[in-house]
Amino acid sequence: MALEVLEDRTVPRTTTVYPLRWRSRAHAIVGLVLILGITVVVTSAIGSTDIPLSTLCQVLLAKLPFVEVTPTWASSVETIVLDIRLPRLFLAGLVGASLAVAGATYQGLFRNPLADPYLIGVAQGAALGAVIGFLLPASWQAASIPLLAFAGALLAVAVVYSIARVGKTLPMTTLILAGVALGAFLAAITSYLMIASGDKLHGIISWLLGTFSLTSWWQVTMVAPYVFVGTVVIWLHARPLNVMQLDEEQAQQLGINVEQMKLILLGAATLITAVAVCFCGIIGFVGIIIPHAVRLIWGPDHRFLLPLSTFAGAIFLILADTAARTVLAPTEIPVGVITAFLGAPFFLYLLRQKKRAIF
Amino acid sequence: MGFVVLINPPAAEGTGIVCYETPEPSVNRYIRRWPLILTTLVWLSCVGCIPQHPEGNVVDDLGRTVTIDQTPQRIISLAPSNTEILFALGLGDKVVGVTEYCNYPEAATAKPKVGGFSTVDIEKVVSLEPDLVLATRIHGKTVIPALEEVGLTVCALAPDSIDGVLNGIALVGTITGQHKQASQLVDSLRTRVEEVASKTRNLAPDQRPTVLYLTWHNPLMTAGTGTLADDLIDKAGGQNIAYDISGDKAIDLETVVHRDPQVIIASVGMGTGEDLPWQYAKTEPRLENTQALVNRRVYMIDGDIVHRPGPRITDALDLMAQFIHPEIF
User: Fold this and answer.
1) Nearest CB to B252; choose among A76, A202, A329
2) Using CB atoms and an 8 Å cut-off, which of residues 41-60 of chain A contact chain B?
3) Over the stretch A296-354, which tens digit does the pLDDT of each residue have?
4) Which residues 6+ apart lie within 8 Å of A325 measured at CB?
5) Which of A232, B40, B134, B186 has its CA 20 to 30 A from that of A183?
6) B56-59 vs B65-68, strand pairing mode
7) B120, B139 in Cβ contact below 8 A?
């Protein structure tokens, strides 16, 4: 019946349903997916070692089923492309996607432009866990650092959540404050442990700034399922998230189970953030900049904001990591340095171009 | 010592040699120059006589001029390498403070601790009333000014080559009055260095195996040019694959695979007795096809003897030479 009213055109279209600018945004999603594909191929050709694009394509083609390519390249080329560059690219893409979509979710949930995936203690919890991992006996380190980082991240958020919960509701302001306070407390412990860590300090700092060096396929296969499930869950909740932008009370009155929604979205966003940071460390800036950039370009509708952020985050972090491993080759810089160094000016440029309120 | 004497006007007048043919003004001019000439002469003799009398000025590795008034009796070392040098020169009894990392020789561990490597407890240093503090480059910006502020004598050693280490030992001998022991030690170390270097000096480039020196595995850390490890690899007859990296930095795994090192030397025991970098190098599947792994030439070396610019540097050189050229050494 509501539709008939619409057909009547007695009510302006835009005030009833979301403003529908389907086509351009759907195109944008397809476009970003294409760009992501191109980015993967092109950046896998870039590195401290010169590998011609033709050789690269042959190496990649040879891996496809039913394609016969006689190897004319050294085995080291295959190792470099397939076992060093590609897993790195994939992990960077997955992490960039998770951080960006988690950032968009947090910003939507908290209705706060300053929210990022690390707002309620994920980063500080992960950092503390990882630093403890670094200080454990050496033989445990390889497994314990990602595991403790992951556990630390989830534990920190769980503590923040249980502190902030009032009865059956979860006031967002309390959540933020509890997150910031617990984060500061955990950061203090981390700082102390770093000072006391002696010769392990370099490894710790490099982890804290975030780095993809030494990524291998098993890490990608560990991270991928979580990121995939978490991201899909978040995407599916784009509509309620849109409604919640009005006000929690209004959303409730419009038939949305706000508390349940908050729990699901917080849970999913926290999970993918924790899984994203546990191998590569705390990569800053992606989670706050990418959603804002997407919002500036394509608008705040979460049905598009969430997938667009996901792909833009992946592209951005792949490019940033490529810069991290090539700018000063053969040495590497932590990718976190690059994300801030490139991301901030780009974001300021966008802000200046658009000159309109983001939220 | 000499400075007071030569600026003394009576001393200049008393010499009076220049008076015989020049009129008054000129005499004055010459007399005015005398302090300068004397300064130079006495300074030269002063430099010559430091071995017997440690008092005087020396220039340390950071280019600072250090004035030693009398033979130091209470010495604090701010680095494990400095501690090793002091003990090797028989000054163990005079060492009154060391760092937490000073684990060699055994006797050093019993000394009072003045903090970590870069985190020096200034108050503790002052309370030990040292008349000489031996620092390193890492202390240059903050710790040394702080120590000078409270009137302590600080000398910094910052060698980045084997020759630099030997000079550093000689310098410590000079300022502590242990010149004889120092020159004996330096001579014996130099002989051992020369024993190795003479066999590797004339090797053609293709006889010099490529070497990856691994200081840490996550991220991969190596020692580039301007480091002791680089000099050791060179003297031991190898080629460092990190030739275009300067200092201790991370190296791309891709670069390592591409440059395909023939020998991998992993530094172990960095303070904690762990052999992680060595384990890593042996088990990393992506290094499997490098010459070093194919030919099973992954070695481990005690990081302490490589990275500490102290008297054990020749032990490191001997080991490196055996790893890189087992057929010669």
Assistant:
1) A329
2) 47-49
3) 888 888 999 999 999 999 999 999 999 998 988 788 888 988 998 888 888 788 778 76
4) A47, A48, A88, A212, A213, A332, B252, B254
5) A232
6) antiparallel
7) yes
CA-based nearest residue to B262, from B294, B310, B307: B294
Cα angle vertex B192, ends B189, B194, to 5°? Answer: 110
Catalogue the long-range contacts made by B18-25 (C-beta closer than 8 Å, 24 or more residues apart).
Answer: none
Which residue from B minimizes the CA distance to A47?
B254
Would the CB atoms of B252 and A330 count as touching at under 8 Å?
yes
Who's near A110: CB < 8 A, 6+ residues apart? Answer: A119, A172, A175, A176
Q: Which residues of B touch A91 (CB under 8 A)?
A: none
CA dist., res. A34 & res. A313, Å (int): 14
ipTM: 0.75
Neighbours of A82 (CB within 10 A): 17
Chain A residue whose CA is closest to B100: A198
Nearest to A281 by CA among A172, A112, A173, A153: A153
- Per the CB < 8 Å rule, is B252 touching A138? no
- How far is residue A99's CA from residue A281's CA, in Å, rounded to a whole number? 12
CB contacts of A80 in chain B (<8 Å) are 254, 257-258
**Domains of chain B, CATH where assigned:** 2-49 (no CATH), 56-188 (3.40.50.1980), 203-324 (3.40.50.1980)
Alpha carbon distances (Å) from B236 to A198, B203, B219, B313 = 30, 11, 26, 12
Residues from chain A contacting residue B219 (CB–CB below 8 Å): 203, 206, 211, 213-214, 332
User: pTM of the entire structure?
Assistant: 0.79
Contacts of A76 in chain B (CB under 8 A): 257-258, 260, 289-290
- Among B327, B273, B318, B274, which residue's Cα sits nearest to residue B297? B327
- Tell which residue, A313, A319, A329, has the closest CA to residue A273: A313
The pLDDT score that the predictor gives to residue A237 is 94
pLDDT tens sequence across A148-193 = 999 999 999 999 999 998 888 888 889 999 999 999 999 999 999 9
